[in-house]
Request: fold
Amino acid sequence: AECLQARPSTALSSASTDSTRPSTPCASDMFGSLLSSANESQQHSTNYSDRAQPAAQHQLQRSRHPLKGEMATVHGSEDKARDAGAGAVDEIFGEKPTSRGSTPFKQKAASTVSFALSKKLQQAFNTVDGDKTKFIEISRLTDFLAEASVKCYADEIQEIHAQVQYEIGMGRRPNGTKLAFDDVLELLAMPNYTLCINLEEVVSKERRDNIKKYTKVVLGSDDEARARSIAEPPTQLLGDKQAVCRLAMEMHNTEHPEMVRVYLARALGAVAEKPREVSGNQPPEGEKRNMMFDGKAIAACLFSLKLGEDYFLDKRSFYNPEPRGSDDSAAPPVGVGLMQAAIDWHTRAEEIRRPLEFHDAIPSDYCSRPEFYLPFKRVVHEHSDAVRVECLETITKLCNHENETIVKVLLKSAAHDPSWAVRATAVEKLGDVARELRKLGYKSRWGEVRYWWAEEEAPWRASREEFRAFFWSVLQGATRDLAWQVRKRAIETIYDAVEFGDQVPYNAIAACAEDGAVLVKTAAQKLLMNALFGRGSVISERNYKLVQHIQNGLAPAEAVRSADADAIATKEADWERVVVDALVDRTHHASAMSRRQALQTLADVVCNARLRGDNVSIQCFIEALSDDDELVKTAAINSLRKTSLQSDTRVIGGLVDTALYATEWQTRKAAIEALENIAVQGDHDVVFAFHELMRDKNAWIREAAVKALEIIAVEADPASIETVTAILQDSSWGVRRAAARTLMLLEPEGDRQDTVGPKVFGREDKNWYKDAEGYLRKPLFMPLR
Reply:
C-alpha cells in the first residue's frame, strides 16, 4: 500500500457542492492562454488533444486529487476568463458547452488519460470483462494490460496485488479483489508504478517532432547544446507529460552510456512540472496545502531507485579514505558533487583492483564473522550509482516536504541502497526536507502537526510516532555508516531536523565527535557548539549577569547559578541546553577512550559557545578526576583548565587532591599546571600544596611546583623564599634553574640578579656568572610570564 492514495481535497469537495459551478471542461493552467479564444485553429486543437476532454470526461478531471500529479481545473476568480476557452474546446471536439449548473457535479475516480485513450482502455476492460459485470478480478489485471498494450513488470504486478490485499484488510475496498474501471484507471495513474509512463497517447505530429528534437539533443554528443537544453528547455515542452514519458523511457534504456542516462535524468527534472498549489479554495493557513505533482516524472525516478531483496557487503572490501589534502592529486576534493564522486570512486576502485564484495548470505567459512558483513538491498533496475544519485536530485525537485512519497523514498535509499553516494545524497535531501519544516519556527520543526501528514494518508505506517521513530533510526544508523560522506551529512541532517529540547538526536551527534574522520569529527563539534549557542541572546545575557554577580562578591558557583536563572527569565530560551546533557552522558561510557574524547569535546563546545563556568560541566569534570583511567583524568584536568572560572574552590580542591595523590606523575604535573590558571595569587592552600610538592621524589613534579609557585606566591613571602632557597642545591639542573627564576621574583631586594647569583653558584662563581650573564639570562632568570 502506497502513500499517494486518491483522497478528495478540501477545495474540490467544497467545489462539488456549488450549484453554480460550470460543467464545461477547461484546459490546464499551462495552456490556458492558447485556448482562451473561441477562434482557435484546428492545428492547436490537434496538438493538445490529449489535454482537453469533452464535458463528460471533464467531470472526471474535476475530481482529481492534487497528489496524483495531474493538471488541475482552475476555479474561483479565474472561471470567467476560462469559460470562453472551455467553450471553444468543446466546439472543436464537437461538444457544445452546457449551461451553468445544468449537470450536477458527481465525484468519480481520477484519470490521467485523454478521451481517446480512455475509450481504448474501456474497450480492453470490456474485452476482459466477458460477463459484463463491470468488474475484473485482480488476477486478470495482466490480461487487461496486455489487451491495452501497456507494458508492465512482474514485480510491479506483485506489488499491486499486495496493495489490493492490504486495502482489503483495512476495509477500504468493499468489492474485494474485484476492480472496477475507475479502480484500474487509479492504478494506472499511480506514480508508484511505471504503468503511467507506458500509456501511449495519440499526439500531433508537431508535438511529437518537438519531443523527438529535444530528446535527440539530450542524447547527442554536443555537451554545450545539451547543457543549454537542460538549463533552458523549450517552453512548449514544460510540463508536457508525453515528453516526460519519452525521456523516462530513454533513461530506463540501459544500452545508453552512464553519463547519457545522467543527462536524461536532469532533463526529466527540467521538463517535468514543478510542485504548485491547486487552484481554488485551500485549507486554512497552517494546514497542509492541496498540491499538484508530476506523477509520471516521479514514477520514472522511483523505477530507477527501486530496491529488491537483501544481500550483504563485506566491509573489509570497502575502501573510502578521507581526502589527504589539496596537495595530493590522487585524493578527490571535498566539495565535488556526489554524482561525480561516485564515478571517480568506481574508477579508482578499478585502478587499484579493489572491487566491493557482495554475498547473497553471510559466508560460514573460518575467516568470516557476522560483524564483517552489512545488509543492504539489491538494485532492481538501475545499477549505475551516478544515475540513481541524479534521480534523487530530480525527485526532490518534483516534490516538497508536504509530499510523503519523497520522504519514503529518501528514507529507503538512505537505509538500504548499496552505494555510499546514493545513501549520502538521500541523507542530504532529507536535510533539505528538514530545513523546509524548520522554517515554521525555532521551536516547532518536526514536532508540529502543521505541514505534516494525517494518519489516513499514510497506510504504510501505523502512526505518526512510529514514522518519526523510523526517521530517527535511519539517521542514527547513517551516523555509523562505512562512508564518511554519509556520516557527515547524517549529523548535519539530524541538526536540521531535531526538535527543540530533544536530547536523543544529540546523543548521536555526540558519538560522532569521536569519529576517526577529521571532517566528521569537526562537523559534529561545530554543530554541537551552534546548537548550544543558539541565537546568542541567552548566552549574552548570562555572561553580562555573571560579571555583575562576581563583582558583587558571589562565589563562582552561586554566580553562575544566578546568572543562568536571570538570563532564562529575561530572554526566550533559544539555546539547546540538552547538548551539555548529551555530552555529560557520553562521559559515562564504558570505553575509556570514549570518556576521554567526550570530556575534550564538552570542554571545546562549552568554551566556543561562551559558556565558561557552567555548573553541570564543571561538576562532570570534577567527577572525572576520580576515574580509573589516567588519560581520562588528564583530559578532565585540561577541561577544567579551559572552562573553570578563577578562584572556584570546587575546582581548586579537586586539582590539589589530584596533584598530591594521583598515581601517575604526568597527571599530577597537569594538575599543577592547571592550578596556575585557576588559583588566585596568595591562595594559602595552593601555596602550601606547592611547598609539599617541591619535596616530591620526582624531579618533574618538583620543577612544575616551583614554576607554579612563581605565579601563585606573593612577593617577599618568607615561607616561599625559604622553601625555594632550600632546593637551589637540588640534584636536577631543571629544578635549580626553575628555583633561581622563582627566587628572583620573590626576593624583595633591589638587585635581584646580584642576590640570586651567589645563592645559585656560590661566591666563587659570581665573576663567572657576570661574564656569562648575556647567555644565562633567558634560560635561567626570565619569568614565565
User: Anything to note?
Assistant: The chain has a mean pLDDT of 77. The chain has 36 helices and seven strands.
